[in-house]
Specification:
By secondary structure, the chain is mainly α.
């Protein structure tokens, strides 16, 4: 009887392990889906950062003529002081 009881316990353990394994298998698509969404979100963030950097670079490029003009005026003013 003890042997039969042990055998029943083994079958119960095997059944439990099968259910746990199946449960984990069911979770895999959910995990993959979550990882895909996170990756897509990061990709969107990269594009946003690139766009921001482009705008900042363009803004700096627009400032260059103003800086050059200011430097010219300062140089001309210094030249007048020399005279």
């Amino acid at each position: 009887m003890q042997a039969f009881s042990q055998f029943e316990n083994i079958l119960s353990v095997i059944s439990t392990l099968k259910m746990q394994a199946f449960s984990q298998f069911e979770n895999i698509p959910s995990v993959i889906s979550t990882l895909k969404m996170q990756a897509f979100s990061q990709f969107e963030n990269i594009l946003s950062v690139i766009s921001t950097l482009k705008m900042q670079a363009f803004s700096q490029f627009e400032n260059i003529p103003s800086v050059i003009s200011t430097l010219k005026m300062q140089a001309f003013s210094q030249f007048e002081n020399i005279l």
